[in-house]
Amino acid sequence: MKKINIALLGASGSIGQNTLEVLRFHKDRFNLIAVSVHRNIKKLEEIIQEFKPRYAVITSEVNYSKKDIKILRGIDGLKEVAALPDVDTVVVATAGTVGVFPTINALRSGKRVALANKETLVSFGGIVKKIESESSGEIIPVDSEHSAIFQLFTRFEREEIQDIVLTASGGAFRNLSREDMKRVTMEDALKHPTWSMGKKITVDSATLMNKGLEVIEAYWLFSMDLEHIKVVIHPQSIVHGMLTLKDGAIVAHLSIPDMKIPIQYALTYPERIESPVKNLDLTEIKKLEFYEPDYNRFPLLKLAYDVLKDGGTMPAVMNASNEIAVYAFLDGKIGFLDIERVVFQTVEKHKIIYNPSLHDLLEADKWAREYANHLIQEISKEKN
Ligand code: NDP
Ligand code: MG
User: CA angle, corner 140, sides to 363 and 193, nearest 5?
Assistant: First the structure.
């Protein structure tokens, strides 16, 4: 069997490390050809030692040199490894907007993109899907909900499917009142009830922005009308996605919450093989609960639907301002509820551009970051 050659972008992160566990478990199936990190040289050293990739990309300015491996830099480095002739699959697991560049290059070079990075579809969905349709490349989703839907979707005819249902754990503050949310700390927000993930996405789970971003991703991945993309709160995170079928039946995808399952499926699809994750025992879980999301307590989820309806540059603006606000919250500069305040005010201020080019989207992203930073400074002044 020919081994699958992998480029893993964002190798030092939470998805990156889970991907390495999958590769470690299936040494006979995969070769790691290239990796990227931003700042974490220690992790890079460990990866080079263990997997001996031929290329490493460093996207920050940190100093690093090493013999016997080609070191590339910045976005150009990400683009270059994404298009290497002997790479089959590019795992895009970097944080942030940069993910779009290697994704586009990989698709144009006919690769499979195992896509974890959310910004790529949330902000650039229209462009990226167009490039995918015009190329021999393909996107296979890594996010657990989209992987679940993808696995179900391919089993049915389009006319048989009525709704996509994405599940949300509800995050760290599922049962908190707005009043109590005013006082929560960063440590509180980082206590995710079911998943272990990077800090940014864990805060997004607490605001339900993460689910909002996933609604937008689902829209692009499955070309489904927005009113047929539903969200339910499911605190156990065992059911990852469901399809409601035309006859009223529901089919669901269940597993223990562990990203190694969807990551591995994106790498081996259409094949399904043994994974390093233990089987789900439903008699241990005992109960599965489902609730209607509360859009009043979690307005960012509603906003995601609204900005997608607005279209154009709006989703990119929402995403960028959210990213800035979440990092400001993680830096202790603003409170938890200030995240949504920054996002709503940035979205309100934005002058939408319809049918945007990649350049327009990048400009809107940049503007949103600047405006959000300005708002954060104002909020910090208010506080002191
Ligand atoms: P982490 O923060 O754990 O890791 C981010 C990775 O990207 C690290 O390798 C980091 O390098 C690198 N990175 C950080 N900043 C930059 C930058 N400016 N340019 C290039 N690379 C950068 O994030 P996660 O692994 O949690 O998430 C990665 C992506 O996958 C996100 O878009 C997230 O929304 C998505 N995702 C994550 C899930 C999860 O379970 N964690 C689930 C579904 C989607 P370094 O360590 O050197 O700083
Ligand atoms: Mg998810």
Answer: 85
Tokens of 136: 């021999």
Q: Give the three-class secondary structure for 76.
A: helix
CA distances from 265 to 116, 262, 274, 282, 287 (A): 13, 5, 10, 22, 26
Task: Give the predicted TM-score (pTM) of the model.
Answer: 0.97
- Give, for 361, the enclosing helix (H) or strand (E): helix 358-383
* C-beta separation of 239 from 254 below 8 A: yes
The strand ranges marked E within 234-359 are: 239-245, 250-254
Q: Give the CA angle between residues 219, 122, 194 to the nearest 5°.
A: 85
Beta strands, E only, the chain? 4-9, 30-37, 55-58, 70-73, 89-92, 112-115, 138-141, 161-168, 229-233, 239-245, 250-254
Q: Using the mean position of ligand 2's atoms as its centre, give its distance from the Cα of residue 214 in Å.
A: 7
- What pLDDT, on the 0 to 100 scale, is given for residue 72? 98
Which DSSP state fits 331? T
Residue 384 has pLDDT above 80, yes or no: no
CB atoms within 10 A of CB 247: 7
Q: What's the DSSP call for residue 312?
A: T
Rounded to the nearest whole angstrom, what is the distance from the C-alpha of residue 380 to the centroid of ligand 2?
Answer: 31
Q: What is the pLDDT of residue 193?
A: 81
For ligand 2, a single-atom ion, the residues with CB < 5 A are 143-145
When the pLDDT of each residue in the chain is averaged and rounded to a whole number, the result is: 97
Please give the structure tokens belonging to residue 349. 């201020």
Residues listed for the chain: 384
Q: How many CB atoms lie within 10 A of CB 381?
A: 8
Pocket of ligand 1 (CB under 6 A): 10-16, 37-40, 59, 93-96, 98, 116-118, 143, 195, 197-198, 200-201, 259
pLDDT in tens, 131-150: 999 999 999 999 999 999 99
What domains appear along the chain, each with residue ranges and CATH number? 4-142 (3.40.50.720), 143-305 (no CATH), 311-384 (1.10.1740.10)
Q: Taking residues 24-43, what's their average pLDDT?
A: 98
Encoding tokens for residue 187? 């440590």
Nearest-atom index, ligand 1, CA of 143: 43
Q: Evaluate if residue 300 carries a pLDDT over 90.
A: yes
